[in-house]
Specification:
Elements lengths: L1 H25 L7 E7 L4 H21 L3 E7 L15 H10 L3 E6 H11 L9 E4 L2 H10 L3 E3 L2
Parallel strand pairs: 1-2, 1-5, 2-3, 3-4
Length: 153
Amino acid sequence: MQLSKKWAALVAAIAMFFAAPVLAHDLPTDHETHRIAIQVSDNNPGTFQKALNNAANMSKFFLARGEDYEIEIVAYNAGLHLLRSDTSPVADRVKNFSQSVPNVTFSACGNTIKGMTKKDGKEPQLVENARVVPGGVIRLMELSDQGYFMIRP
């Protein structure tokens, strides 16, 4: 009986020795960059405000703690109006956002732009700090694969 207890303790110690590096790899470190993607797919001024408020609040939080972060707001479908300079009720706020809130980028869905161009007969004008990505949903999938935490306000 005494031998089996010692044997079990030895097996447990060996298992913990090999498991520790694996578990430590999965734990966040002090220098890890927080990555957040915010999805905007509805043409809703309240959603636009929530998305921008979420980004601003997270930015303040991480800056106060001295932690690195990246936030990307991805607009597609009707949510593209967030980034349109001609139809967005928050266009001025979006334009000034990059100057006042660091490490936040805006991505506009290229597929949605093509659809709106076809429907309206002209390409929608975007705020200057928006960049066009091939597809909004594809971009969200890419960000998810890169470890971004997804938020849909």
